[in-house]
Amino acid sequence: MAIKQLTVFVQNRKGTIVSVTDILARNAVNIRALSIAETEEFGILRLIVNDEEMAEKVLAEHGYLIKVVDVVGVKIGDEPGKLTAALDVLDKADINVEYLYAFMARTEKHAYVVLRVENNETAESILADAGFHLITEEDINKL
């Protein structure tokens, strides 16, 4: 049930991010979530999009180095303490969260969070057993 994340390696210079987003926009790829981590010279742009295959194809055609990884998407209540509850469930199951970020879209009562963990299936099972709704590719396409 994991969702696909594009990891795009970019140079840390003016215009790079707009170039990526422009390429995606011109190819009808909608960004649902993103995160960027940078060093002085390079950045790692993480994206959840509505059409992972098209995004990978067009970015590769423009010379971007891309890696596709499976991540866990979880819907949590949009109120104080709900993120902590989800993270606590994973912590008690001895699952390390390598990084996380939130979706750009949200509903009135929920937020959507992307989690990178060592074992997606175990994390998904633990979260589902604790009553959390996992996000699917179908959910992303509805946003």
List the helices and strands and how they pair.
Elements: E1 3-11, H1 16-26, E2 31-38, E3 42-49, H2 52-61, E4 65-77, H3 82-92, E5 97-102, E6 110-117, H4 120-129, E7 133-134, H5 137-142
Antiparallel strand pairs: 1-3, 1-4, 2-3, 4-6, 4-7, 5-6
Fold and architecture overview:
With 143 residues, the protein is an alpha+beta fold. It folds into two domains: 67 residues, VC0802-like (2-Layer Sandwich), CATH 3.30.2130.10; 72 residues, VC0802-like. Helices cover 34% and strands 38% of the residues. It is built from five helices and seven strands, in the order βαββαβαββαβα. Strands 1, 2, 3, 4, 5, 6 and 7 form a seven-stranded antiparallel beta sheet that branches. A hairpin with a 7-residue loop joins strand 5 and strand 6. It is globular, with a radius of gyration of 16 Å.
- The termini sit apart by 17 Å
Helix-strand category: alpha+beta
Q: Which overall shape is indicated by the principal axes computed on the Cα atoms? A: globular
Q: Low-confidence parts, pLDDT < 50 over ≥5 residues?
A: none
The pLDDT mean sits at 89
In the CATH classification, which architecture of the largest domain applies?
A: 2-Layer Sandwich
The proportion of strand residues reads 35-45%
> For the report, how would you describe the main beta sheet?
7 strands, antiparallel
Number of helices: 5
